[in-house]
Amino acid sequence: MPVNRDRRSAWIVGAACAVALAGAGVGPGAAAAQEVSFHGQVRPRYELRDPAGTGERDTFTSMRVRAALDAALDERVRIFVQVQDVRLFGEETNTLGDFRADNFDLHQGWLEFGGEHLPWLRTRLGRQEVNLGGQRLAGAVGWTQQGRSFDGARLMVSGERGTLNLIGFKLAEESSAANEADQELFGAYGTLRSVGPGALDLYWLFHRAERDGPDTREHTLGARYAWSGAVDGRLEASLQTGDRGDEDASAFMVGARLGRSFAEGRAGLTLWYDYLSGDDDASDGESSVFNTLFATNHKFYGFADLFLNVPVHTGGAGLQDLALKGRFTPRDDLALSVDLHRFQAAAGGLLADDHFADEIDLTVRHRYSPHLTMTAGLSRVFNVDGLREVGRLERSQTWLYVMFDALF
Fold first, then answer.
1. Closest residue by Cα to residue 226 from 251, 259, 250
2. CA-to-CA distance for 235 and 224, rounded, in angstroms?
3. How far apart are CA 113 and CA 171, in angstroms?
4. Distance, CA of 398 to chain centre
5. Which residues fall within 8 angstroms of residue 222, CB to CB, at 6 or more apart?
6. Which residues contact 34 (CB under 8 A, 6 or more apart)?
7. Neighbouring-strand partners of residue 325
8. What does the pLDDT read at residue 32?
9. Which residue of 102, 168, 301, 314 is 20 to 30 Å from 262, comparing CA positions?
10. What is the pLDDT of residue 172?
């Protein structure tokens, strides 16, 4: 049922006070807690994007502020509560007149417990971040100030040979005022350690979404193998099948990465290629475009974030990403990197130009202290005829950011 905004704001602020008091060791049950820790983060970030979605240059400063309580109540029970405020500088023109905490929210709040007779099994219930594997299909999207979390349950099995995560999340609830249909995500993600020089991940995800017409019932199955050393790499493949509304889903993704370290690990080069299938025939009753679901796409397809929503941001044509990435760490507190991307459509039969764009990303990261990191980045996107055709970008784009990240 709808909740009055003033009551909701009061509840949120009250919860934040309770978290702060608990972190200080004040409140019911504090004496019984074996271990209680309090964590926080302040992360302002200035950005310039030219052109932005409006076609003009845009500059703004955003900020994330998080506070978290982590309490191990005993050997079997743990709770974690994390609240956050995400805002743009100047969003509240008069703080004396606006004190409703519109941007304050519960980012995580979960209960975790394990049985004395089943020490290899833990159950986590509530709102929680989830990063599966390399976050190719499900991730917390930590780059964004708001991040992503899921509401639901997670069973975590651990053993000498590996781990298994079973998830069940409610993405949308028909009974709530904000949603008109149910949506869920279920899955299993297992990791086998010491398979040759690396680790092997096997996974299955099932996404169900109710619609006015036929529902979406889509399965994603795949495997990921990654290893590290003087030569490190990754091989990954996923297959999607099932129903997407009134179309049959038949899509796939393959990816490979191979890197080499130099100068006692202080420098390295990585060659990277990803192929996400596309669809150039919308009338055959089959959807062949790969859906990245709930991935942290900022990690993969260029830092300028022009491919955050695949397949939407590629016009259903899929994506090929060929990249060369270099890194150099001249000092322990300083890291430099440069990434070169060439983006191409995977199914460009309907496009006059199947070359989406080229991108170069420059990043400098300085660890000012154990608690503060400063990062600056510059990206240039050019040769954008393909992106112009799918309505994503009209001309070459420059993106710049400076970020300060303080943690305790």
1. 259
2. 6
3. 23
4. 23
5. 137, 202, 203, 236, 237, 238, 239, 253
6. 72, 73, 74, 75
7. 270, 339
8. 52
9. 301
10. 93
Segments of the chain with pLDDT less than 50: 1-11, 13, 17, 19-27, 30-31, 33
pLDDT, one tens digit per residue, over 331-388 is 999 999 999 999 999 997 778 999 999 999 999 999 999 999 999 999 999 999 999 9
Burial class (CB in 10 A: 0-12, 13-18, 19+), 292: buried
CA-based nearest residue to 202, from 238, 176, 172 = 238
| 8 Å CB contact between 156 and 244 | no
Domains and CATH numbers, the chain: 5-15+34-407 (2.40.160.100)
Residues with Cβ within 8 Å of residue 317, at least 6 apart in sequence: 278, 279, 280, 289, 311, 345, 346, 347, 348, 350, 351, 354, 390
Phi and psi, residue 300, nearest 5°: -110, -50
Burial class of residue 238 (count of CB atoms within 10 Å of its CB; 0-12, 13-18, 19+):
buried
Stated pTM of the model: 0.88
Q: Label each residue of the chain as H, E or C.
A: CCCCHHHHHHHHHHHHHHHHHHHCCCCCCHHHCCEEEEEEEEEEEEEEEECCCCCCCEEEEEEEEEEEEEEECCCCEEEEEEEEEEEECCCCCCCCCCCCCCCEEEEEEEEEEECCCCCCEEEEEEEECCCCCCCCCECCCCCCCCCCCEEEEEEEEECCCEEEEEEEEEEECCCCCCCCCCEEEEEEEEEEEEECCEEEEEEEEEEEECCCCCCEEEEEEEEEEEECCCEEEEEEEEEEEEEECCEEEEEEEEEEEEEEEEHHHCEEEEEEEEEECCCCCCCCCEECCCCCCECCHHHCCCCCCCCCCCCHHHCCCCEEEEEEEEEEEEECCEEEEEEEEEEECCCCCCCCCCEEEEEEEEEEEEEEECCEEEEEEEEEEECCHHHHHCCCCCCCEEEEEEEEEEEC
Q: Which residues contact residue 247 at a Cβ distance below 8 angstroms, ignoring those fewer than 6 apart?
A: 285, 286, 287
If one counts every other C-beta atom within 10 angstroms of the C-beta of residue 402, the result is 16
Residues in the chain: 408
Instruction: List the one residue out of 311, 320, 271 whose CA is nearest residue 289.
Output: 311
Say how far apart CA 283 and CA 346 lie, in whole Å: 18
